[in-house]
Each structure stands twice: as C-alpha cells, then as structure tokens.
Specification:
Oligomer: homodimer
Radius of gyration of chain A: 19 Å
CATH class of the largest domain in chain A: Mainly Alpha
Shape of chain A: globular
CATH architecture of the largest domain in chain A: Up-down Bundle
Largest interface: A-B, 26 and 26 residues
Number of helices of chain A: 11
Strand content of chain A: under 5%
Number of domains of chain A: 2
Largest sheet of chain A: 3 strands, antiparallel
Chain lengths: 223, 223
DNA sequence: ATCTGTGTTATTGTATACAATTATACAAGT
DNA sequence: ACTTGTATAATTGTATACAATAACACAGAT
C-alpha cells in the first residue's frame, strides 16, 4: 500500500529476501507475467533476482504449497491459475463469502466500520479517476478487510487465498467502467447492512455482489 | 498407506528430507502431539530429526503457508487447529463438498467407482475389527478420492486442506463405534448415487454425511 | 527504584561448497 | 532400426560456515 494508508506504527519491519522473492514471483504468476508450462531452474531464478539459491528455494516451497508451481527434476514449472479455475473459485466464494459477511455483522466495531467506509470512499475516488490498479487494490482491501473482521482464521485463509488467485481477472473485470461503478455501490450497500448489524442482509448482498462480479468476468471470456 | 494398497507401479520415488520432515511435523501438529504455543528453534528441530537446518527451514516454509506455525524471532511457534476452527471447517465443507460430489457424478469412470467401493469395503472391514487408525485412514482415502475425481484443482485443494486439518478430531469421532458404522453406510449410499450418476442425490447425501459427522464431533466436545 | 545504554548471546537469514539424483547423448550390441 | 548400457552434464538436495538481527542481562546514571 501507499505511505499514508498502511502506517499504523512507525515500525520498520525486516523482510527477508526469501519473503520478498516469494511475493515477487507470486505476483508475477498471478498477474500473468509467466506463462503456464514455462520452466525455470533455481540457478536461473537465483541470478534473475540477484540472490543465492537458499532464499529462492524457500520461496519455491511456499509457492509449491499454494499450487502455483510444480517442482520437477528439470526445474520449476509454472502452473498458474487457469480460466477454468475461475468459475470454481467464484462458485466457492459465492457459497461461503456471504457467511463471512454475516459473521462480521455480529462483531464489527465502529472503528472497523469507519475503516471499511474509508476504503469504499477511496475506491469511489479512484473509480471516478479511472485508475485501474488503484481500483483493484482498494477492491482487494475491502474484501480482505471483511475476511479479517469476520474473526475466523479458517474463513479468512480460505477466502483470502481464493480472492488472491484471481488477481489478473479482477483487473480485467474492473476495466469495465460500468462494472467498476456498480462494485462501489454494492460495497456501500454491504457497509450499510453491516452498520445496521443486519447479518442476513449483509449475507444476501455479498452473495449477489460476487455473483455479479462473476457474471462480468465470464462475459469478458466469451467476448 | 500400507504395502498392498498404495502400489500402482513398482516405482521407488525419491523423497527429500525436507519433504519427509514436513510431513512428520505436520502430522505431529495435526495429531495433537505438539501443544499450541509451544516453540522450537530450528537447531532443536534439526537435532530432533537428525538433519541439517536447510531441509528443516524448507519444511517450516510450507507449514507457515498452511498456517500451522508462526515464525518469530525466538523460533517456530505452534499454532495448530483450535476446537473453534472445527465448526468453521465443517460449516465450509457442508457448503461445498456436496458440489464436489455432484461434479463427480457427471464424470466418474467405472474404474474410479470400483476403487471407491474397494475403499468402503476396507473401511467396513476395519470398522468390524475396531481398528481406529485404519478406519480413519480409509475414511480419509474415501474423501480424498472424491476430491480427486471431481476434476477441479480448486475444489480439491480447498477441501483436501480442510479435511486434512481435522485429523485429530476425526480420530476421536470414529472411536464412537455407532458413528463408525453409520459412516460406512453413508459412504456406501454416496457410492450408489455416483454409480447411478445421480448428481443431485450424491450432493444431498454428502451434505447430510458431513452434517452428521459434525454433530458427532461436536457431541464429543460437549461431553 | 527505575530507566537507559551497552556488550553478550541466541536465533534466524544467506551464501557457498559439495553430494545425490536424474536427464541426455552417444556408442555398442542385437 | 531399435534397444541397452555407460559416461557426461545438468539439476536438485543437503550440510556447513558466516552474516545480520533481535533478545537478554547487567551495569551505571538519574
């Protein structure tokens, strides 16, 4: 995130090379930079990122665990996320993200609510400006915040992982200005339901929101 | 698995130390051997498993990715799976495992079906003998097979991960002989629905099966 | 007594050397 | 032509040495 948004304390956190390499490779895969089937040797990645094989290997283990790569005797093979996976991801999110929203309604604090509304305001602002990357980042922030608030590590990790995996496609989706505007409105409605502590409504609105997002993405594929 | 069950080819697969250490630690955590909050230094794990820190660290990265441990500056802290997580896991499985079964009905082959029935036969056998570990292993095998057959990496990885995490509690559950017998019957019914290619029925039976398993486990907690 | 600074120790993070494994090319035999 | 064996090279797997970082204990000042 940017300077003003992510700073809660002035702490300077040490980030290992292994961790940053992991994040860079993950992002490259999820944003479609590497093609499915492409292979890299550890040495190649090592010189590509300018670090030794040790942190590369640690990053590889994490990517392996996320099913984004496959380790073979010839190197690391990119698996990535196929268009076919997208439908499954939306199917699952459609069934459980509403529940997460319902959980939120019962326990959300006024500070959480304020933060959530600020995120939507920002998303609104970026949508009017047409800044796609920023729109997607605030969109991510909204959903991640819901996952975080809902108070369940299980829901949070499952949903976060699924939402994360469709990075590339969400960016495509949001380039449709009509859909981008609609998404802001839907996020606002979810906020209002949470503010009213109406779990059933938050559930219903979230399910509908995900269904709409799914339809929009699938339209992109058929065009 | 045992010698006779897992052998499809005579291949002797090389398994790295990192991989086997990962599996051993994961199993130790999931079976409740290590308590939540317990910490280990890498050196301690290193001498515990008789290997250098390198494979230990690679195993740690994978466990970290599974949210089973947390790496701190003082060592590796065990997070494990809390009883509170169990309800969430069943809630999610209850919503999506039925869908996976439905997918299976459309594409299952007769070989798959035969294997699945063999698993249930074995589970039946072990249930009559009262061999808890074996019962749980065949129970795992049944569900993992469904995940594998359904033809979706997304469903498979999400469900497999969730199912895997409740290892300890499933063992407890199955020690109730009445529940163990019931589980065999329910598995058979799911098999029959799949054999008849009845997706709706397979869905409904699977959802009910998970609901029953959940109720049984929750009973264990309240007693 | 409490806070603060500093040296020490313990621990994780990284690089590198070496071992083990697997793939590949090529030759020889059938 | 095709298989089979073998040497070679490429790659992953592991151990170890060292660097960076963070925790800790303790002395000294206020």
């Amino acid at each position: 995130m940017s300077i003003e948004s992510g700073v809660n304390s002035g702490d300077i956190k040490f980030v290992s090379l292994a961790e940053s390499v992991f994040e860079r490779i993950e992002n490259d895969i999820l944003s479609g930079k590497y093609k499915k089937g492409e292979t890299f040797t550890e040495s190649r990645l090592s010189e590509l990122f300018g670090v030794s094989r040790t942190p590369i290997r640690e990053a590889i283990r994490k990517l392996e665990q996320e099913n984004l790569i496959k380790v073979t005797t010839k190197g690391v093979e990119i698996l990535g996320v196929s268009p076919g996976d997208i439908e499954d991801i939306y199917e699952i999110r459609g069934r459980i993200e509403g529940l997460a929203a319902k959980k939120c309604a019962g326990i959300i604090t006024s500070e959480d609510l304020k933060k959530l509304e600020e995120i939507v305001d920002l998303q609104d602002f970026y949508t009017q400006k047409g800044l796609h990357e920023k729109i997607r980042d605030t969109d991510s922030a909204f959903h991640e915040m819901i996952y975080s608030i809902c108070g369940s590590n299980v829901y949070s990790s499952v949903l976060s992982n699924l939402h994360h995996r469709i990075l590339k496609y969400r960016k495509m989706s949001i380039q449709n200005p009509e859909r981008a505007r609609r998404a802001v409105i839907e996020h606002r409605e979810i906020c209002e339901a949470l503010a009213a502590r109406d779990g059933e409504l938050a559930d219903k609105l979230t399910v509908q929101h995900i269904c709409n997002a799914r339809d929009n993405i699938m339209r992109n594929f058929s065009e």
